[in-house]
Amino acid sequence: MTATLLALDTATEACSAALLHDGRTYRRAQVAPRLHAQLLLPMIEELLAEAGITLGEVDALVFGRGPGAFTGVRIATGMVQGLAFASDKPVIGISNLAALAQRAWREHGATRVCAAIDARMDEVYWGCYELQDGCMTLVGLEGVCAPEQVELPRGMTAASGAGTGWQYAGRMAVQVEQSWPQMLPDAADLIELALPLWQSGQTLDAAEAQPVYLRDRVATPKA
């Protein structure tokens, strides 16, 4: 089944958008902290124009649901909700940790990845993934903790590391074969992970699009 999917991600320093149409992926990306809200709509307009389609021809809207920066996660979620309500389209939320793992597979061929995003407050967002049928699949649970408290899920062996959390590699309780601490999520990888969900009918109504922070005290500094 062919699909036309539009994906947005603003959960980290990177702002990105991607469009899958007629089997081709178009993308825009820029590392620009605090400018996501200004950049996102022009990116979407450019992608639709480049593919020669309108928003009404998109089958579903995909967003990076977090974890990540509190404000950033809300920007992508709110934008997708607004577009989905306006165009009467379903939505698909994808973990930003999964997107990192997918990017590590796409760019480096890594099949087992421990994704870590700097969560500030001396913690990291953490999740481990293995490749299954071309998509990175969560093993165990995602969570947030100090670098010294991360751990591999039961049965998972040596892996690679992806994401800004790996700037704390010297403190990590898990050691990896290689890591890419500068890697940020990209909307193109959200599309790869969302495509099988779309094909199997695992979509949400716009009102059900919710961010996932993994941390309840999102705006409360540690004592």
Query: Could you name the ranges where pLDDT drops below 50 across 5 or more consecutive residues?
Result: 217-223
How many strands appear in the DSSP assignment?
10
Calculate the mean pLDDT score and round it. Answer: 94
Termini, distance in Å?
52 Å
Write the element-wise H/E pattern from the N-terminal end onward.
EEEHEHEHEEEEEH
- For the biggest β-sheet, the strand order reads 3-2-1-4-5
* Backbone structural class: alpha/beta
**Percent range of helical residues:** 25-40%
Largest sheet geometry:
5 strands, mixed
Shape: globular
CATH topology (fold) name of the largest domain: Nucleotidyltransferase, domain 5
Tell me the radius of gyration: 17 Å
State the domain count: 2
Give me the number of helical elements: 4
Helix-strand blueprint:
Layout (H helix, E strand, L loop, with lengths): L4 E5 L4 E8 L2 E8 L4 H16 L8 E5 L5 H18 L3 E4 L1 H13 L3 E7 L5 E9 L2 E11 L14 E3 L16 E2 L6 H13 L24
Parallel strand pairs: 1-4, 4-5, 6-9, 9-10
Antiparallel strand pairs: 1-2, 2-3, 6-7, 7-8
Protein name: tRNA threonylcarbamoyladenosine biosynthesis protein TsaB
InterPro entries: ATPase_NBD, Gcp-like_dom, T6A_TsaB
Keywords: Cytoplasm, tRNA processing
Description:
With 223 residues, the chain is an alpha/beta fold. The chain folds into two domains: 5-95 and 185-208, ATPase, nucleotide binding domain (Nucleotidyltransferase, domain 5), CATH 3.30.420.40; 96-180, 2-Layer Sandwich (Nucleotidyltransferase, domain 5), CATH 3.30.420.40. Helices cover 27% and strands 28% of the residues. The chain has helices at 36-51, 70-87, 96-108, 187-199, and strands spanning 5-9, 14-21, 24-31, 60-64, 91-94, 112-118, 124-132, 135-145, 160-162, 179-180. The longest helix has 18 residues, at 70-87. It is globular and about 50 Å long.
